[in-house]
Amino acid sequence: MATISRAQLLHHPLAIFSKPPHSHSSSVPFSINLRRRKFSFFPFLCSSASSSSGSTNSSIVGDLLNYLNESWTQFHATAEVKRQLIAAGFYLLNENDEWDLKPGGRYFFTRNMSCLVAFAVGEKYIVGNGFHVIAAHTDSPCLKLKPKSASSKSNYLMLNVQTYGGGLWHTWFDRDLSVAGRVIVRASDGSFLHKLVKVKRPLLRVPSLAIHLNRTVNTDGFKPNLETHLVPLLATKPEEATAESKEKGTSSSKAAHHPQLMQILSDELGCDVDDIANIELNICDTQPSCLGGANKEFIFSGRLDNLASSYCALRALVDSCGSPGDLSSEHAIRMVALFDNEEVGSDSYQGAGAPTMFQAMRRIVGSLANSYAGESAFDRAIRQSFLVSADMAHGVHPNFMDKHEEHHRPEMHKGLVIKHNANQRYATSGVTSFLFKEVAKLHNLPTQEFVVRNDMGCGSTIGPILASGVGIRTVDCGIAQLSMHSMWEGRY
After folding, report:
1. Strands 91-92 and 106-111
2. Which residues pair with 144 in a beta bridge?
3. How far is CA 215 from the centre of its chain?
4. Which of 44, 367, 373, 440 could form a disulfide with 17 if both were Cys (CB 3.0 to 4.6 A apart)?
């Protein structure tokens, strides 16, 4: 899990794009007048948290913690976003149906239960006007059960797992673990349903080897074999099962998953074991997200990369459309896109590499044009659009300061981090970073900049993928955090 600054959550352009100052309340197709300092593109992307009451700020932090504690998996994160959108009056669309969209309307759809696109249409929208988008991702590095997870060694029942993403896998040892994810269940009428499951009690553990059996671990480093050492223990094998196995001369079950695990899942779901047709489960830490630090200035949690950005994007869209008049002066379309599989390259049906968002944009333009869009309406809309790719950023570690480029060390409490890379690992350009910073200045919000050292590899995110998809102007940014890709990033 990770640590981020509580204040940084409250005071950055993604925190809530709700209720912008009245002097900048309208949004028109992209224009900028430096001489008069009039910036008229998507002011709703800016936070008004700096002028909010303390109780509102506390509510934002508390709501984020609730969201993190609900969102053990990408499926649960998407389900919680869906729940909040419906509660806020957004209408659920089906990709298989024809869409009948109206100016002033608020809509969303999901894909694979782990990807979601939501949008609100300005009441003054004209075909060809742009989209103002925040994109983030719902997945995080974790362990996932293999299709055949049942194994046993030395009278222990164990679960075979796959490593997903680039995790700090040593942090998964000696933690109170459980399972959560999606299960396909057979209904009484013979149909099949998707159901989410989350076993909240500690169920699994990956124990470390005692130092007495590994005397050089503190000098040579802990280098676990990810296939043989990172296998969680589920239970000890029942004596009767052990005796039966010896009698039959077998050492492992023929079932894909241990009966004990399947019984636990059936109890959680309220169904028979035989009704469980398939499972898609992550291994999860059971410790809840919380505030930490001497002044409660930190948020200690797992999956902050990238659920913190996903939550901020959700809150921004919902809060900016909360009142009937919030869209009355809007000329553009406000959009949030949350994708799965970013941690493994985004090349999937539900990832940013799929044309999900751009297909939705094209359909939106077509629907609002009432079947007549004119010449290149979608292409003109893209030229008027702006995308904020929001993913977490590497905060400078006080014990490893030399790992950062000297003049580009993101710090907590110093504002949102704008990410740059000359080799296009990030999509930020001189123009998009300038525009983003000018919007922040309008709301007195600090920004800082990150560039990786030349002698280190640079990670990437969904920004370049989406920017190159149809040529949409993009800035990559994020919140500074510590312990990125650790399971428990904020425990010190």
Report:
1. parallel
2. 162, 282
3. 39
4. 44
Q: How confident is the model at residue 323 (pLDDT cuts 50, 70, 90)?
A: confident
H/E element, 106: strand 106-111
- How far is Cα 406 from Cα 399, in angstroms, rounded to an integer? 14
Kindly report the number of other CB atoms within 10 A of residue 472's CB atom. 23
Considering only CA atoms, give the Rg of the chain.
24
- Residue 35 is predicted with a pLDDT of 33
Rounded Cα gap, residues 404 and 453, in angstroms: 6
80-107 per-residue burial string, b: 16 or more CB within 10 A, e: under 16: bbbebbeebebeebeeeeebebebbbbb
Distances, alpha carbon 125 to alpha carbons 262, 334, 368, in Å: 52, 11, 9
Q: ∠398-286-164 over CA atoms, to 5°?
A: 70
Cα separation, 28 vs 318, whole angstroms: 20
Backbone angles phi, psi at 239, to 5 degrees: -60, -40
d(CA 258, CA 272): 15
Q: 276 pairs with which residues across the strands?
A: 185
Q: Which residue has the tokens 């890709």?
A: 485
- What's the average model confidence in pLDDT over 188-199? 96
At residue 52, the pLDDT reads 42
Residue 259, classed as helix, strand or coil, is: helix
CB 43 within 8 A of CB 25: yes
Average pLDDT value for residue range 191-216 = 97
- Give CA–CA dist 67/65, Å, rounded: 5
Query: Phi and psi for 6 in degrees, rounded to 5?
Result: -60, -40
β-strand partners of 447: 416
Distance CA(129)–CA(5), nearest Å, equals 36
Identify the residue whose tokens are 């700090």.
168
- Calculate the dihedral angle through the C-alpha atoms of 148, 76, 113, 362, rounding to the nearest 10 degrees: -140
- Tell me how far apart the alpha carbons of residues 308 and 303 are, in angstroms, rounded to a whole number: 8
Cis peptide before 160 (omega within 30 of 0): no
CA pair distance 29, 486, nearest whole angstrom: 41
* DSSP count for the chain of H helices, then E strands: 11, 22
